[in-house]
Write a structure and sequence with these properties.
Helix content: under 10%
Radius of gyration: 19 Å
Strand order of the largest sheet: 1-2-3-4
Order of helices and strands: EEEEEEEEEEEEEEEEEEEE
Shape: globular
Length: 255
């Protein structure tokens, strides 16, 4: 049946620097996977890979790793090799290859994705619908073995990750998946030992903040991040020292 009108344009949701000097991206609702060639000034749409979106991209070696909400066949993770033909699926020859694991949920929002000191990929996520227990997910890309650690900070989601001195530095928010109600009052920052697979410290770098975002490791080994909203509804740019476990610089700004 032909339609006599154009559909609504889809919005770009995420962009990332990928292998071979190209930019990759995801649209939102539905998920179209595309690449941008900066030299040729061309965009190539591989097609629809689900009804949701890619929340996080990470390049490791010559491959592009993706953490998704509402991807094709409801899988949470995908890995794409640009040197191989595009053929999405779940078998060993698929590209991007769809990867699922025990305890996964299609309703998560994987907001944070970094390479850890052990070369594994670490993901921080907002919990699925009706839940508060956002997980730290560890993806060994060599073996595709995946571990999930939930409720590291009870009833909080993981929203930002960084690494320093062989540790993972994680920030949380008090909000969970759609339909859930917060039980906690302040967002936390915690340190995670990848070798022992345990939390070694937790604290509140900015009192009254509801979420931590945008962690960045500075050259001196400190962590810069944003806490929002804090007192009087304002955001706070802060610097945290994982060695002394103290918050140094804080700079309020309108949120």
């Amino acid at each position: 049946h032909p339609f006599s009108y154009d559909g609504r344009e889809s919005d770009v949701f995420r962009l990332a620097a990928g292998p071979e000097g190209r930019i990759y991206g995801s649209s939102i609702l539905p998920l179209h996977f595309f690449t941008v060639d900066p030299e040729a000034r061309e965009v190539h749409d591989f097609g629809r890979l689900g009804h949701g979106e890619v929340y996080s991209f990470l390049t490791q070696g010559e491959k592009l790793y993706m953490a998704c909400y509402g991807a094709r066949d409801k899988v949470p993770l995908m890995v794409y090799d640009p040197t191989q033909p595009f053929r999405p699926g779940a078998d060993g020859q698929a590209n991007p290859r769809q990867i699922d694991y025990d305890g996964s949920t299609t309703g998560w929002r994987p907001l944070a994705m970094i390479e850890g000191p052990d070369k594994n990929i670490y993901l921080g996520s907002v919990a699925g619908y009706g839940r508060l227990d956002g997980a730290l997910t560890v993806w060994d890309t060599e073996s595709n073995h995946i571990e999930r650690f939930s409720n590291i900070i009870p009833d909080q989601s993981l929203t930002s990750l960084a690494t320093v001195d062989g540790l993972i530095v994680a920030g949380t928010m008090v909000f969970g998946g759609g339909g859930s109600s917060p039980t906690q009052k302040e967002a936390k920052l915690f340190l995670w030992d990848p070798d022992k697979k345990v939390k070694t410290w937790e604290g509140t770098p900015v009192p009254k903040a509801k979420r931590m975002t945008d962690f960045l490791t500075l050259p001196d080994g400190k962590i810069m991040g944003i806490a929002a909203p804090g007192a009087e509804g304002k955001g706070t740019l802060f610097v945290f020292d994982p060695r002394s476990r103290q918050t140094g610089l804080t700079l309020p700004f309108a949120w």
